[in-house]
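Hi there,

I know you've been waiting on this one. I reran it after we fixed the sequence typo, so this is the corrected version. Both the input and the resulting structure follow.
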Amino acid sequence: MEGGGKVCKRCKTTFDPALNTSASCRFHSAMYYELGPDDPPYDAKFYDCCGAEDPQAPGCKTLPHISYDDKDH
């Protein structure tokens, strides 16, 4: 995708604007949360939006890609 590709602000992948659909971008709408060393001693790692525990879990939301060039986002 030379010249026409843009980088998505949400998922950080390069996309072709001509092929951008309402479900092109898959992302998590909240941060991945990990307890710190001073937090309780149980293991709590998860995405705050959907509860997925795997940091590599596919996103739980889909929307069109949005580039850094797009306005109002």
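Quick highlight: The longest strand covers residues 25-27.

Best,
R. S.
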